[in-house]
C-alpha cells in the first residue's frame, strides 16, 4: 500500500510516526471482524499532536504518540458493511474555553516532539465496546475535579489512623485540637486541651514557639561551635559549661520568685473549679509552683501524650479493652498507670475492687462489702519484724503465703512499668510496710528480695502506693532494705532496671547518705571501700553518685574526692528545717535475724 503524502509544514518525524501508525491500523483492521474494535491502538495513554501547515486553511494530520494521556474519548458505531479498508478517525478540535490537564507523572513521549505543535486536542473515537473504553475515559466533571486541589488525595496525617467515630471522653469536648499542638484531633484524655484547661489555639501557639526556640538554640550552638577551634572532648574535665551555669542560675532565680502561699482568691477559684468539674478536668496549677517548673511540667505532659499516641497507633495500647482504669482500695479510689495481667473477666471491667488487707480482687462493690463483713484479716500475713509508732514492717514468705504475694504483685503491676514477676513468688521474701490505726494495718508499700541472690541484690521490686507518695515512705523502704544488708554484713544494690520514680528515689537516698558521711568525716584521706562497708551501698552506686555531684576528680594520675562544703551546708540546712520526723528507720526497733535457708 502506498504511503500517504506528508502535509506541508508538518514535522517529518512526527508525521512519519503518524503514517506508520495509521498504516498499521489499516492492516490490523483488514484481518479482523466487525467486533474487533477492542484491538485498536488508541488507548487512554495515547494523545494527539497537531501539526499545522504554514497556511492556516490546510487540514491537520493526526499524530499518535504513546505517552501523553487523552482528555476525553468518545465512541462512534462502526459501519458493518464488510469493507476491509480501515476507517480514518476525524479530528475534532476542542473549544477555546476547555482546559487541558497534562499529567506530569506520565513518562516523556518516546517519539521526538520538538517540532510538533504545542496545542492538544480531544479525540472522538467510535467503538461498540463502550463499557471498556468508558472505563478509561475521563468525564468532564472528573476532569474539573482533578484540577481542583481539594479533590486530590491527601496524605494521611498522624491522627487519621484512628476511627473517626471515636470521641474524646472529656465532657463537653469536640475532639478538636491536641495538647501537643501538632495534630487537629484527639481521642484520649492525655491529648485533650480542654481537660488541661487549655484551648486548641493555645496549644498550637505553644508548639510554634517551642519550635522557634529549638531552632534558635540550634543556631546559637552551631555559631558557638564555629567559633571554637578545639573540638576535642575532654573526659577529665566534667565541669558545667558557662551556658549551663547561666541556665541553672536563671532557674534558681525563677524558683525564688514563686508565690509560696496561695492567695485567698486563687484558693477559692481552685475550689470552685473542682466543685464544678470534679475529676473531669485537671486542677488549676497557676501559682502552685514557679513558672519555669509549670512550663517544664506542661512540656512533659505533651511529650507523654505524644508517646501514648504512638503506642496506640502501634497497637500496644488498646482503648477500653483489657485495661483497668481505676481500683477501689480501702477508702481510696486510685487511677491505674499500667496494664496488669489480671484474669480476663476482671481486666475488662474497667474498675476493680480490692480488699486492702488480704488483697483479694472482686468485680463489684456489693461483693466487696460482703467480703469485708467476713474478712478476718487486719494486717499482712507473716512475721512483724519492725515496729515504731504506727509504722510496721511484715516479712512475708512467698512460699508460705503464695496467694497473698501473687495478689500483691498483680496490684503493684498497675503502678510499675518494668515489673515482670507475677506468679512465681516462691523464691522471694516480701517486706510489707503498713500504717496502723483503729481499723487495721493499711498497706503503705513493699519491696521484695530474693532469698538467695548471687549478685547481692537487696531489692528486686519496690513500690510505694500512690496515696502515700511524696511523704517520705519510699525513702524509708530503701533505708530499711539497706538496714537488712547491714545486719547480714553484706553490700547491697537494687536490681535493674529501676522505674523512673524508683531511680529518682534511690539517687536522692544515695546523695543524702554520702553527704551525711562527708559531714561527719574528719579525716584527710577517704576510701570508697570504707564508705561502702559503713553504709552497705555498692561502690558502683557510690562512684556514680559522686560523679553526679561533681565530687570525684582525676588529677595527676589520682582520683580525688572533693568535699564540697556548699552541698554539705545545703543538706544540713534542709535537715535542720525538717526537724525531728517520724519518717525515719530506727535500727533499734528491728527484731530480725537473717534467714538461714529457704
Automatic annotation (TrEMBL):
The gene is kat7b. This is Histone acetyltransferase. The active site is at residue 495. GO terms for molecular function: chromatin binding; histone H3K14 acetyltransferase activity; histone H4 acetyltransferase activity; transcription coregulator activity; zinc ion binding. Residues 32-64, 112-130 have a biased composition (Polar residues). Its EC number is 2.3.1.48. Residues 98-108, 131-151, 213-232, 264-284 have a biased composition (Basic and acidic residues). Belongs to the MYST (SAS/MOZ) family. GO terms for biological process: DNA repair; DNA replication; positive regulation of hematopoietic stem cell proliferation; positive regulation of nucleobase-containing compound metabolic process; regulation of transcription by RNA polymerase II; transcription initiation-coupled chromatin remodeling. Keywords: Acetylation, Acyltransferase, Centromere, Chromatin regulator, Cytoplasm, DNA damage, DNA repair, DNA replication, Isopeptide bond, Metal-binding, Nucleus, Phosphoprotein, Transcription, Transcription regulation, Transferase, Ubl conjugation, Zinc, Zinc-finger. It catalyses: L-lysyl-[protein] + acetyl-CoA = N(6)-acetyl-L-lysyl-[protein] + CoA + H(+). Residues 319-594 form the MYST-type HAT domain. GO terms for cellular component: chromosome, centromeric region; cytosol; histone H3-K14 acetyltransferase complex. It is found in: Chromosome, Centromere; Cytoplasm, Cytosol; Nucleus. It is an enzyme of class 2 (transferase). Pfam families: MOZ_SAS, zf-C2HC, zf-MYST. Residues 1-68, 98-169, 211-285, 577-598 are annotated as: Disordered.
Amino acid at each position: 500500500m502506498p504511503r500517504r503524502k506528508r502535509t506541508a509544514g508538518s514535522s517529518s518525524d512526527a508525521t512519519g510516526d503518524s503514517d506508520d501508525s495509521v498504516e498499521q491500523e489499516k492492516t490490523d483492521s483488514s484481518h479482523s471482524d466487525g467486533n474487533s474494535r477492542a484491538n485498536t491502538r488508541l488507548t487512554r495513554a495515547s494523545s494527539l499532536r497537531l501539526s499545522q501547515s504554514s497556511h492556516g486553511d490546510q487540514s491537520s494530520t493526526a499524530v499518535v504518540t504513546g505517552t501523553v494521556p487523552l482528555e476525553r474519548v468518545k465512541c462512534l458505531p462502526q459501519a458493518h458493511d464488510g469493507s476491509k479498508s480501515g476507517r480514518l478517525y476525524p479530528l475534532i478540535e476542542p473549544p477555546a474555553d476547555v482546559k487541558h490537564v497534562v499529567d506530569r507523572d506520565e513518562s516523556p513521549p518516546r517519539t521526538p516532539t520538538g517540532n510538533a505543535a504545542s496545542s492538544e486536542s480531544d479525540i472522538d473515537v467510535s467503538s461498540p465496546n463502550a463499557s471498556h473504553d468508558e472505563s478509561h475515559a475521563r468525564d468532564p466533571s472528573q476532569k474539573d475535579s482533578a484540577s481542583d486541589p481539594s479533590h486530590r488525595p491527601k496524605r494521611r496525617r498522624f491522627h487519621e489512623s484512628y476511627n473517626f467515630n471515636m470521641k474524646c471522653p472529656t465532657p463537653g469536648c469536640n475532639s478538636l485540637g491536641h495538647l501537643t499542638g501538632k495534630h487537629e484531633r484527639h481521642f484520649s484524655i492525655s491529648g485533650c486541651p480542654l481537660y488541661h484547661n487549655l484551648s486548641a489555639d493555645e496549644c498550637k501557639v505553644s508548639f510554634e514557639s517551642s519550635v522557634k526556640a529549638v531552632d534558635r538554640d540550634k543556631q546559637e550552638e552551631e555559631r558557638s561551635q564555629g567559633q571554637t577551634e578545639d573540638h576535642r572532648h575532654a573526659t577529665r574535665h566534667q565541669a558545667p559549661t558557662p551556658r549551663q551555669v547561666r541556665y541553672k542560675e536563671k532557674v534558681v532565680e525563677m524558683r525564688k520568685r514563686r508565690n509560696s502561699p496561695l492567695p485567698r482568691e486563687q484558693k477559692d477559684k481552685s475550689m470552685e473549679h473542682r466543685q464544678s468539674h470534679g475529676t473531669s478536668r485537671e486542677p488549676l496549677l497557676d501559682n502552685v509552683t514557679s513558672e519555669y517548673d509549670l512550663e517544664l511540667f506542661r512540656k512533659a505532659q505533651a511529650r507523654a501524650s505524644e508517646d501514648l499516641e504512638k503506642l496506640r497507633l502501634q497497637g500496644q495500647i488498646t482503648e477500653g479493652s483489657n485495661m483497668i482504669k481505676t481500683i477501689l482500695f480501702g477508702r481510696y479510689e486510685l487511677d491505674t498507670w499500667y496494664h496488669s495481667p489480671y484474669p480476663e473477666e476482671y481486666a475488662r471491667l474497667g474498675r476493680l475492687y480490692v480488699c486492702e488487707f488480704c488483697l483479694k480482687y472482686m468485680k463489684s462493690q456489693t461483693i466487696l462489702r460482703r467480703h469485708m463483713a467476713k474478712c478476718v484479716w487486719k494486717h499482712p500475713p507473716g512475721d512483724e519484724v519492725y515496729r515504731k509508732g504506727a509504722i510496721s514492717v511484715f516479712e512475708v514468705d512467698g512460699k508460705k503465703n503464695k496467694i497473698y504475694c501473687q495478689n500483691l504483685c498483680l496490684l503493684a503491676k498497675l503502678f510499675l512499668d518494668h515489673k515482670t514477676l507475677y506468679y512465681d513468688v516462691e523464691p522471694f521474701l516480701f517486706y510489707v510496710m503498713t500504717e496502723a490505726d483503729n481499723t487495721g494495718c493499711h498497706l503503705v508499700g513493699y519491696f521484695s528480695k530474693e532469698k538467695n541472690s548471687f549478685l547481692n541484690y537487696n531489692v528486686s521490686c519496690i513500690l510505694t502506693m500512690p496515696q502515700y507518695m511524696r511523704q517520705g515512705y519510699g525513702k524509708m523502704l530503701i533505708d530499711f532494705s539497706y538496714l537488712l544488708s547491714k545486719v547480714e554484713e553484706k553490700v547491697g544494690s537494687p536490681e535493674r532496671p529501676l522505674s523512673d520514680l524508683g531511680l529518682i528515689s534511690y539517687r536522692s537516698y544515695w546523695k543524702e547518705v554520702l553527704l551525711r558521711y562527708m559531714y561527719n568525716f574528719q579525716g584527710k584521706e577517704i576510701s570508697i571501700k570504707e564508705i561502702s562497708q559503713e553504709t552497705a551501698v555498692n561502690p558502683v552506686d557510690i562512684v556514680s553518685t559522686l560523679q553526679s555531684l561533681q565530687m570525684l576528680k582525676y588529677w595527676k594520675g589520682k582520683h580525688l574526692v572533693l568535699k564540697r562544703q556548699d552541698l554539705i551546708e545545703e543538706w544540713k540546712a534542709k535537715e535542720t528545717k525538717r526537724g525531728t520526723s517520724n519518717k525515719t528507720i530506727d535500727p533499734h526497733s528491728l527484731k530480725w535475724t537473717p534467714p538461714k535457708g529457704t
